[in-house]
Amino acid sequence: MGTKEKEMDHNESKDQFISIQEYKGEEFALNNGMETDKVAESHREEVVKAVETFFLDEYHTPVKVHNLVGNEDGVTIYVESVGIPFIHTYAVVPIDVENNTVLADQVFSLEGEVENAITSGVYGCVFEDEFARLNDLLKEITKKQALSGKTPEAINNTKSFGYGNEYYFVSVFDMELSDRIVEMYLQNTQYSKEDWVRAFK
User: Fold this and answer.
1) Residue 164 CA: distances (Å) to CA of 9, 42, 145
2) Residues 84-119: tens digit of each pLDDT
């Protein structure tokens, strides 16, 4: 390989990377999503309404839509919840590219994805004080060490991790506990932090 080829390869790879402090998830893409992305953007209002309706109907949860990202068969919509529990998750709206149609009545999410996010969010709510202390500790560490977290925009536009922030996310692996939390949540989405703390006890 000649010198010019090496320089070109180096410059091409530089264009593919961005520092974590600057990354906002704006160029985030999923495999084979270019065509569906175009259809989704041209039907943006319909897609957003379909996802908001899906979360209200299936999980009694109002959400704020952050990003639409085309995938092979549709569009993945990244959202955050409005209220308790605070979560980031997603749903998928199928798209018929040939007919330029959004299948708004067929919205879905992968099995357990939203449920795990709800469990994670409730856990974060119950242990809010403990997580606040962890966050304070992480702030101290970032002052002393070269530690950078993701930007809030990158989290909103690309992440589906339930409860978390720029440095970590929370997963709950106790499926029995998770099922109970989701069942309780779906029965009463108006639980306050105090209600959840009492329930955990």
Assistant:
1) 36, 32, 21
2) 899 999 999 999 999 989 999 999 999 999 999 999
**Residue with tokens 């993701």, as numbered in its chain:** 150
Q: What mean pLDDT do residues 153-177 have?
A: 89
Distance CA 43, CA 45 (A): 6
Helices (H), the chain: 3-15, 34-42, 44-59, 113-126, 128-144, 152-158, 175-187, 193-200
Spell out the residues 6+ positions from residue 98 whose beta carbon is closer than 8 angstroms to its own.
Answer: none
Q: How far apart are CA 116 and CA 179, in angstroms?
A: 9
Measured distance CA(174)–CA(139) in Å, rounded: 29
> Distance (Å, rounded) from C-alpha 77 to C-alpha 84?
20
Q: Measuring CA to CA, which residue among 52, 126, 46, 136 is closest to residue 86?
A: 126
For residue 165, give the nearest of 128, 193, 192 by alpha carbon.
128
The whole-number pLDDT of residue 44 equals: 94
Provide the CB-side half-sphere exposure for 102 (13 A, CA): 23
List the beta bridge partners of residue 33.
none
